[in-house]
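User: ok so my PI wants both of these folded by tonight, can you help

Assistant: No problem, let's get them done. Here's the first:
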Amino acid sequence: MTIVNPYLYFNGNCEEAFNFYKSVFRSEFKYIGRYRDVPQAQRGIFSDGDDKIMHVSLPISSETTLMGSDNSEIFKGSVSTSNFSLSINTDLQEEAERLFQSLSIDGKIILPINETFWGSYYGIVADKFGINWKISFESSNG
């Protein structure tokens, strides 16, 4: 089985973003490391400030881990939040609604979550960090 896990880059606010995601997904960090944790001998590509997040992983389901870091100098200018969306499918409509509402706090609702003509309960939101999320629940009617 091949599993795709999203890796998000932030400009200094990775910790804030992942604390938000931790509350939304009701999960705990599997790992959180800072640039200061990188051994001096291996700091070659990591020139950012000590308190910035070098890597964080947050399991959001049994098969998916959301990962991220603060941009290292090697990634500057190569990341855009406008060219992708993270898609979440839930087992319960109530969970889709909860995730949508939680992710929309201080964000922007692009498409309100609602029943669609193709039988999904579906909506799109950009969270307060600019990450686009597509939330859906596949109803039995579709």
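One down. Here's the second:
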Amino acid sequence: MSTQDISAPVVRKGTLLASMTWPARVSIVVLLIVCATAALARVIAPYDPTAVDPVQALLPPFTTSPSWHLLGTDELGRDILSRLMVGSQVSIVVGALGVVVSGAIGLVVGIVAGYFGGAVDAILMRIVDALLSIPAILLILAVLAILSPGLLTLIIVLGLTSWVIYARQIRNEVLEIRERLFIKAARTFGSSHVYIMVRHILPNVVPTFVVLSTLSVATLIVTESSLSFLGVGIQPPDISWGLMLSDGRDYLATAWWLSTFPGLCITFTVVCVLFVGDWLRAVLDPRLKTTL
């Protein structure tokens, strides 16, 4: 029995750091800044993001009089920079917690379906096929039309509609892992199904799960922004980048900064997450012939 058969893929720390490309390094720095800003937004924001001041409405970026506004103000006189800082909290929370919910469901379903196979696999995969046949955004809109909109509702709905990707991919991997010698040996020695799935199969699918989770964060951030833009996601007085984007669409010709800066925040954050996800995939997926 080879070492490869009895252990999960191992990536040494030195190899992990050495393989990091410059886009991945820059992306990690940017994401750390976004996360730190989200955590400290209420402390470091220069103004109250909900304070209305009609006298200072629609001030352009780099305005210094009658007060300093680096990124300008919106149609109600609220500081754009402060609102971007606070709005980052929604993107981080939705991305992180949405992945926790969807990843947990998809991981369990994928392992159970792949390990047991047969009727269990057929039933679970038909459910996955049914959900995949429905455009995700339409399914989310239908559910949100029934439930009251809000941050918690949005996280739950995104989590419950995004787990199928995990289930399909992990199930395919488990189908191969369950035929390895160390799984057959564990069965021969009388190990329980739960023990085998948790102790032997789970560590082997963790790399795939990590990559899927990273890429799913980007998808959930874009989805939340799209839903907020359509008016069924985050609701005022809460703040999100998608909601700011929606508020500024009526002023594109006269106040471009209202939509431009939230749009740039969404774009840069998603692109950085994708760069990190690609790097993790290259490092953790042994099937990729990447020179590390």
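Confidence is low (pLDDT under 50) at residues 1-11. The CA atoms of residues 112 and 187 lie 16 Å apart. Good luck tonight!
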